[in-house]
Amino acid sequence: MRIRSKRYQTSKQLIDANQLYSVSDAVKLAKETANTKFVNSIDIAIKLNLDTKKAEQQLRGNLALPYYFGKTTRVLVLDDTLTKEKAKEAKIDYFGGTDMIAKIKEGWLEFDVIITIPKFMPLLAPLGKILGPKGLMPNPKLGTVTPNVLKTAEEFKAGKYSYRTDSYGNVHMKIGTSNAIDEQIIENINFFLDFIKSKRPATVKGAYFEKIVIKATMSPAIKVELPK
C-alpha cells in the first residue's frame, strides 16, 4: 500500500472527490494544492470514449495553446540545403543531413523533435527502434516531414505541442504552472477541450468525453465538469 505524504493528505482534504468542478474552480484548487517549494506544472488528463484498436479513433497531432508553459524545444532539422544563416534566423538548434543521422546511430539524442524533408525518411526508417519509443520519429501526420522545414521549426520553437491518445483513450497536456495567471490556464483548458472536441471521430457512438481531471505536480487530481 502506497503511503502518501502529509502534504498530499492535506491537499486532498481540500478536494471533494465526488464533485465535478467548473474549470475556473478546478484551476483555483489546483494552484491551492500546489504547495511545494518549487513551481508546479499543472496538467490536464482527458479520458475519451475511443476504441484505439481502430486506426481512425487514434488521435495524434500538434497544436499550439494560447499560452505556452513548456520548456524550450530543441529542434533538429534534416535538410542539406539549409544554410547556417537561415538556421540561426529560425532559432534551429541543430541541422544537417546524413552527418546528423550518423550521430543518431551512434547514440546522440540531444533534441526534442526532428523536422525533416521527405528525402531523408528512408535513411531514418532503420532508426525506428531508437526514435519510435521516444516519440522522436518524424511523421507526415504530425507535420514533421515537410518541404517547409523553416516554418515548421519556428512553430515548434514558439511552443507547438505534440499530443496523442494512449491505448486506453487518454490524452494528456501541460496547460499551465502554479505561478501562472488563472485566466491564462483557463483559456488554455477551454482551447484544448474545444480542440479535442473538434477531433471527435465520426465512428464514435455515445458520449465522447468520459472523464477530465486537472492536477498540480505531486498533488491530488481534481475532477472537472464534462463539456456539453
List the helices and strands and how they pair.
Elements: H1 6-12, H2 23-32, E1 41-48, E2 60-64, E3 75-78, H3 84-89, E4 94-96, H4 98-105, E5 113-116, H5 121-124, H6 128-131, H7 149-157, E6 160-164, E7 170-177, H8 182-198, E8 209-216, E9 222-223
Parallel strand pairs: 3-4, 3-5
Antiparallel strand pairs: 1-7, 1-8, 2-6, 8-9
Indicate the mean pLDDT: 92
Radius of gyration using CA atoms only: 20 Å
Structural class: alpha/beta
Helix content: 25-40%
Structural overview:
The chain has 228 residues and is of the alpha/beta class. Helices cover 29% and strands 21% of the residues. The chain is built from eight helices and nine strands. The strands form three sheets. The protein has a four-stranded antiparallel sheet with strand order 7-1-8-9, with helices on one face. Strands 4-3-5 form a three-stranded parallel sheet, sandwiched between helices. The chain has a two-stranded antiparallel ribbon with strand order 2-6. Helix 3 links the parallel strand 3 and strand 4. The model has no long low-confidence stretch (mean pLDDT 92).
Outline:
The chain is of the alpha/beta class and about 230 residues long. The chain is built from 8 helices and 9 strands.
